[in-house]
Structure formats: structure tokens, C-alpha cells
Specification:
alpha/beta, single chain, 8 strands
């Protein structure tokens, strides 16, 4: 006779925790007593970017997918800072709120950028690490470096805020996602969740507030500390990413001790949508690897 392990709450309903006095929505699935896996989304997505990976991973693991503070269903506080060091430290406070000492950590895009900094500065809290199509230790391709630098400049220039809040951010992001939708990789309802909040005055104000704290140049300390990472690491990359060069991935894999590289020729930035099975398999291989503490 086998005993079924207790499951987490309904994965369609978020658990709310408080981080820095603000509300963070988290979705959980899988056995309550299983090893935790924390999946971090990137810009401008939310927890649903992992919708293909959560069901198979939750057969064996406790899978947690938060909407990072400011995104998706989480609160968008204008009084908090969103600079990189604060965001990395905030990730630790999210783990505290979830009552987790250490997790397997995977991050895409901005989530991967935060994950790398967190693994480097708080190694005891990361059992295994996966980085997927992220600026990580580098930055954007030339065109997108200029775009995000400009938006950051606008965000930290109060005189530009009023005209900037009139821009159609939701429509601009929908246009960027249109090829993914046409290819059948992204459901329109999921895209609505990613961008509809940007059509509100409150959402546009918060987006400018966020970019006022965001900086585009690489952070050299992240590159310097790559060789010090000791946790099992996976690098998963869609090679046809217009925003982030695969050279970031190959440098990560060549520098982080024992890192496994999965380069996917027929995928771009949204690798979890375009090659869901390959991404799930890469994460599964990572989670099978032994850690230094067993």
C-alpha cells in the first residue's frame, strides 16, 4: 500500500505573502513536503510564463511561481525601491515569507538576472540554479540596450513623467508579443495578464517608477563571481533571441564550474513557450544532480 504525499493548495489560486510591507501573489503546486523549486519570471511576464513546466515538475517537487513585486497580480508600490541590490535582497525576504531556507532557483530574463545575483551573494540559500535567456552577467544587444537605457532615463527624469504616462505601453508590448501569439506559442489570455495593467494610469506610473531604478549597463561583480558558484547550474537558451546574445550563455557555461548548457536553435527569447518540453527536460536534469550538502 502506498501513501499519497499531501499536495499544496489549488494551483489556480494564489497564496499571498507580505514582502517589504507589500502583497506578493504566489502559486504553488506539488507535494507539500517535497524539495522546493522557485521559478522566477522575467519582464514583462508573470508566473504564467512557466505554465508548461509547472505540471510535470510538480509531480515530484513543490513548485512555487510568484509574481514578483510590481508584476502580475502582486502589488505595485510606488514608495519602494526597485534597484538591483534591493531586488536581490528582496528575493531573500520572499523566501523568508514563504518559510523556506533554501530552494532550487530558476529564472528567466529579469528573473534570471536576480537569480544570479542571489546565488552569488547568498549561496547557502540556493541548492541548484538555472538561468534562461537572461542578461545575467552581461546586458542587451545594441539596439535593445539603447531602448532600455532611454526608458530608464525617462523614468528617473520627473519632468518627463507626465508625457511618458500617456504612451500606449500595453499596445506596444502587445505588438512585441504578436509573433509569439501568431505562432501559437502564447495564448491571448496569458498575454492579457502580462500587459493589461499597463493600460491603467496606476500601472503606467509604476512602470516608470520601476524603470527609474533600473540600470542597463552590466554589473562587473556578477561576472567576477561566476567561478565562485558551487551549486549545480543549468544554462538554457533560445539561440534566436533578439534581445540577449547567446554569447552570454556560452560565457556562463564556460565559467560557472560544472554548468550544463542547453542551446536551442529553433527558439528565441521566450524559450519556455517555444520549446517547453526541452526546457522541462533541462530543468529535470538539473534537479537530479546531487548537491554538495546531499
Amino acid at each position: 500500500m502506498t501513501t499519497q504525499r499531501p499536495r499544496t493548495d489549488d494551483p489556480t489560486r494564489p497564496r499571498t505573502v507580505t514582502v517589504d510591507g507589500a502583497r506578493v501573489a504566489c502559486w504553488e503546486s506539488g507535494p507539500r513536503d517535497a524539495e522546493p523549486v522557485l521559478l522566477l519570471h522575467g519582464y514583462p511576464a508573470d508566473h504564467r510564463c512557466w505554465r508548461h513546466q509547472v505540471p510535470p515538475l510538480s509531480d515530484r517537487y513543490r513548485v512555487i511561481t510568484p509574481d514578483l513585486l510590481g508584476w502580475g497580480a502582486s502589488e505595485r508600490p510606488l514608495h519602494l525601491s526597485f534597484d538591483y541590490d534591493t531586488e536581490v535582497a528582496r528575493l531573500g525576504r520572499l523566501l523568508d515569507a514563504l518559510e523556506l531556507d533554501a530552494v532550487n532557483l530558476a529564472g528567466h530574463d529579469y528573473g534570471g538576472f536576480l537569480s544570479l545575483g542571489f546565488a552569488e551573494t547568498r549561496p547557502g540559500r540556493v541548492r541548484r540554479l538555472a538561468i534562461l535567456n537572461s542578461r545575467a552577467q552581461g546586458t542587451f544587444t545594441r539596439r535593445w540596450y539603447a531602448v532600455f537605457s532611454l526608458v530608464s532615463l525617462v523614468g528617473r527624469t520627473p519632468a518627463l513623467h507626465r508625457p511618458a504616462t500617456r504612451l500606449p505601453y500595453a499596445a506596444l508590448h502587445r505588438r512585441a508579443f504578436a509573433p509569439l501569439v501568431r505562432a501559437g506559442h502564447l495564448e491571448p489570455g496569458v498575454l492579457d495578464g502580462y500587459v493589461d495593467w499597463m493600460a491603467t494610469a496606476e500601472g503606467r506610473r509604476w512602470l516608470l517608477h520601476y524603470f527609474g531604478d533600473y540600470r542597463t549597463p552590466p554589473r562587473p561583480e556578477l561576472r567576477r563571481r561566476l567561478r565562485d558558484l558551487t551549486c549545480p547550474t543549468a544554462v538554457v537558451w533560445g539561440r534566436a533571441d533578439p534581445y540577449l546574445s547567446p554569447a552570454i550563455a556560452t560565457e556562463l557555461a564556460a565559467t560557472v564550474p560544472g554548468a550544463e548548457l542547453t542551446l536551442l536553435d529553433d527558439a528565441g527569447h521566450w524559450v519556455m513557450d517555444e520549446r517547453p518540453d526541452a526546457v522541462t527536460a533541462a530543468l529535470g536534469r538539473l534537479l537530479e544532480r546531487p548537491t554538495s550538502n546531499g
